[in-house]
From TrEMBL:
InterPro entries: DiS_bond_form_DsbB/BdbC, DsbB-like_sf, Uncharacterised_DsbB. Coiled coil: none annotated. GO terms for molecular function: protein-disulfide reductase activity. The chain crosses the membrane at residues 12-33, 39-57, 62-82, 125-152. Keywords: Membrane, Transmembrane, Transmembrane helix. It is found in: Membrane. It is a multi-pass membrane protein. This is Disulfide bond formation protein DsbB. Its main location: membrane. Gene3D superfamilies: DsbB-like.
Amino acid sequence: MLNNSKITSTVFLLSSTVALIFAYILQYFFNILPCKLCIYERIVFYVVAVLSVLCLIKEYKALIYIMFCSYLIGIIISFYHIGIEAGWFQDIIGCTEQINNNITIEELRNSLLNTHRLPSCDRGYYVLGLSLATWNLLYLLIILLISVRIYFRGRRKEIT
C-alpha cells in the first residue's frame, strides 16, 4: 500500500513531467520559443522531478518539503513573469527587448522583417485570454494545493 509521501511524490513527478512535455510541445511543434523566465520555470519542474524520483526510491520527509518549496519558488517566478508581461515590474534579468536609441533605420527595418524573432516577455502568448505564464502559475498553485492536502491528510491520520 502506498503511503502519502509516495502518493505526493508521484503527483509531483507526474505534474512535472506533464508540464515539461507540454512546454517542449509548444516549443518544438508550435515554435513558441521560451524566454529566460520560461527556462527558469522549467528548472523548477526538472528539480522536482528528480527529487520525486529520489523520494520514491527512498522516502525522506525533507525531500517532500523541498518539493513544496520548489513549487513555491516556481509560483514566485511565474508571478514575476506575469508582472513583467503586464508591466507591473521592472525587468532586471533582461527578458524584455531593450530599446536601443542608436539604432539605424536599416537595423530597425531588418528587425521588423525578421520572422525569426527572439523570445521576449514583451510578447506573451495567450490561451483562452491568459498568458502561458499565468497558466503556469495556476498549474503550480493547483498541484501544490493538491499535494499539500494529500500529504498532510495522511500525516493527520498518523498522529491520531
